[in-house]
Amino acid sequence: MTCTTYAEVMEQRTLHAQVDALTDVDRPAGVEIATLTRYDIPTLAVLTLDAYGFDTTCEALLQTSEELRMTFEGAFGATTHDSFVGAWDGGSLVGAILVIRESPWDDVPDGPFVIDLVVDPEYRRRGIATALVGEIARRCKKWGYDSLALRIDARHTGAAELYDNLGFADMN
Question: In whole angstroms, how far apart are CA 96 and each of 4, 52, 90, 133, 159?
């Protein structure tokens, strides 16, 4: 387990958006959006390592696969069969969003919470992340929720720009 320092916590932003504002987004041509299952864990592990710039060593794949297995089993928050969504291009997983039903933090309102959004570096800035957020927002609405929250590291300017453009706002 890693220890988070005060400086790292200060670099995090908690964001929140109304799902109605997120549902009307375009999907990139040729990209299929579908629910991820446990069978996708090996492919999702590779995507996750690539998206975060980590080497795909055997050890890293095993560790990431185990964390994803635990996520699918609800170790980090309650999920449903359609809580995890992937973007596929020609049979290749190029993006994914993982959402739990309730935030793991007390300072965030109850409701769906994005625990991870990853896009293959070669597919960034093509609308994949926007399409994934839009799909999960539609699902949140179907589940009976009107908002979606997430926490990002403010040092990741690309993610901050994406969420700002989608209409997410800081929670204060």
Answer: 25, 13, 15, 9, 14
pLDDT tens-digit series, residues 7-59: 444 578 888 889 888 888 888 889 999 999 999 999 999 999 999 999 999 99
What predicted TM-score, i.e. pTM, was given to this entire model? 0.89
116-125 residue pLDDT tens:
999 999 999 9
Q: Tokens for 164?
A: 């700002």
Domains in the chain, start-ordered, CATH in brackets? 8-36+78-170 (3.40.630.30)
Beta-bridged to residue 12, according to DSSP, are 153
**Residue 145: other Cβ atoms inside 10 A:** 16
Neighbours of 117 (CB within 10 A): 22
CA angle 151/9/21 to nearest 5° reads 20
Q: Six-digit token pair at 11? A: 């670099």
Average pLDDT over the chain, rounded to an integer: 88
SS (H, E, C) 102-144: CCCCCCCCCCCEEEEEEECHHHCCCCHHHHHHHHHHHHHHHCC
